[in-house]
Amino acid sequence: DQGRLWGGRFEGGPADAMFALSKSTQFDWRLALHDIAGSRAHAKALRAAGLLTDGQAAAMDEGLAELARRVEAGELLPADSDEDVHGALERGLKDIVGPDLGGRIRAGRSRNDQIATLIRSYLREEIRLIAQDVDGVLTALASQAEKYLGAVMPGRTHLQSAQPILLSHHLLAHAWPLVRDVQRLHDLDERLAVSPYGSAALAGTSLGLSPELVAADLGFASSVPNSIDGTASRDLIAEAAFVLAQIGVDLSRLSEDVILWCTAEFGFATLDDAWSTGSSIMPQKKNPDVAELARGKAGRLIGNLTGLMATLKGLPLAYNRDLQEDKEPIFDGIDQLHVLIPAVAGMVGTLTFHPERMAEVAPKGFSLATDVADHLVRSGVPFAVAHEVAGETVRYCEAKGITLQDLEAADLPEISEHLDGGVLDVLTVEGSVASRDGRGGTAPVRVTEQLAELRAAQASL
Ligand code: ARG
Question: Which fold has domain 112-157+166-360?
């Protein structure tokens, strides 16, 4: 039976429902070109081991090149009777080089070491593209941070007014986790660069084939030290699923801010028309769908990770067919991020911020109270006392229906003997922001430095 790589010990073929369950071409066909690259490397190992003559090896390589061409041109597609990508490609190879030579390619390898290698090759390629996508979001955040340098906004903890900050500082706070995500992808790439080819079914190859040769040919740094681990482990796939999920979570948190900022109540930002959608009934609507889909897809990416880990947790060594279930979640994660990340970059890069509105809200909720306490500490008052006095100042203002900025010299003795006129000078949003000038702080001078640091980090990614 063409397209099925086993059968000798069976009297008949599989039942239809058995075959339907087993079949994986509908998702593993995307690995076809990686599989062919593996076969070309494997053919060289077969030749080096004396299992193919020079002439056979040359014909095999030409046949595999033609096979790749047919796959790329869409001339070879999986047939209904093909069990998986490996079977479909062997069928296609035999069509090109004939059944005798085509039937030699499978010596000394198993679909178990093949698939474990292909998924690594595939992920190495894809995570580089994901890293480039993420870089687009970093560029969008950095250019907005630069454009609005100096604009203040309310900083929040518990979503309550906390202390004034620079908008640029807040935007850059979303950039750093994404820098770490890209670093995670690079770290992962190093671990993925170890080839399982040559592990065969589980115990290694007996035909004198060189796993190192195949590894080098496929651009891996080395081959696995343990053939059982090579075929049975999927921790690297789970790690990839984690990084994809973390990227989703980081974009989701950024998106949640955008959603809040674009409400009438906040009024901090407006979405560009090209990156928002309307309502079929409410004519006034401009909805943050990109941000909402980012939030939604983060849930899906987390599901892919947890599903995969649940699949792995009870598996005895070595290969088990359960492992086939690693593919759809990781493919889905890659596909989702490829559509999502560029849209998030577009949305962020085209947001219009409203600095006047943010400046108006920045001192609300007594967000300068810490500045009162810090002023007292600078004039020698213990912080515990300063904290009390600042709290009393807030209570005084609240009772009088004024903000901290409205305080006048005459108010001070009524609140506390510790308050001197100097406190009135620090009670501005700009002064508060400028005073937080330690490394990593929100002072404009530090944020300017930080922006340069981010750009340097981005350039070294
Ligand atoms: N399709 C399988 C997978 O994705 C690889 C093939 C191994 N199948 C087998 N029956 N040994 O893991």
Answer: Fumarase C; Chain A, domain 2 (1.20.200)
